[in-house]
Amino acid sequence: MKKKIFSLSLVAILSIVGISSVYAAESWAYISPSKLTDTTTAINGKNQYGRFGLEVTKGSAKATLFESCNGNSFKNAHSIDIYTTTKKASFQDYWMSNSCKYYVGINGESGTEVGVAYLKDTTN
Fold first, then answer.
1. How many C-beta neighbours within 10 Å does residue 22 have?
2. What is the CATH architecture of 26-120?
3. How far is CA 2 from the centre of its chain?
4. Which of 9, 60, 61, 71 shows a CA-CA span of 20 to 30 A to 37?
């Protein structure tokens, strides 16, 4: 009986964990020497902290978080600058309201090899 209760509890916990990861939204943008700008697709906020970040292999790039609330136009909300002479990756947690949509724009400077920007509606 105890094994059956334990098994059912384990199944319930794993189901909840699996369901929460299914509903997490992520979006990615990439740059290369031939394409120095890109944007992620927009995702909805969930009244919790989300995360956006930037990784660059060589050179420098900037990731900018844009926010649109209540149907208004997108505006610059926050930026991260990366210079690979000092570090290659950075991220920022940002409160993402459920009445807003968000996307990230990435811009690389000449000489930037590969850059990746990401946006997630969770901090995991």
1. 7
2. Sandwich (2.60)
3. 42
4. 71
